[in-house]
Amino acid sequence: MTPEASFTDAALRQWKQQADRTAKILHALSDEQLQQPVAPGKNRLSYLFGHLLAINDAMLPLLGLGARQHPELDAIYLAAPDRTQPQTLAAAELKQQWDQNAEALWTAFNTLTPAQWLERHTAVSEEDFAREPHRNRFAILLGRTAHLAYHAGQIKLV
Amino acid sequence: MTPEASFTDAALRQWKQQADRTAKILHALSDEQLQQPVAPGKNRLSYLFGHLLAINDAMLPLLGLGARQHPELDAIYLAAPDRTQPQTLAAAELKQQWDQNAEALWTAFNTLTPAQWLERHTAVSEEDFAREPHRNRFAILLGRTAHLAYHAGQIKLV
Question: Where is the DinB-like domain (chains A, B) (predicted)?
Answer without folding.
Answer: 14-155
